[in-house]
Amino acid sequence: MTGPRSKPDLAMDIYARLPAELHEYIIAQLWDDRHALSECSLVCSHWSAASRYHLFQHATIRLITRTFSSSANCSPCRD
Question: How many other C-beta atoms lie within 10 A of the C-beta of residue 38?
Answer without folding.
Answer: 13
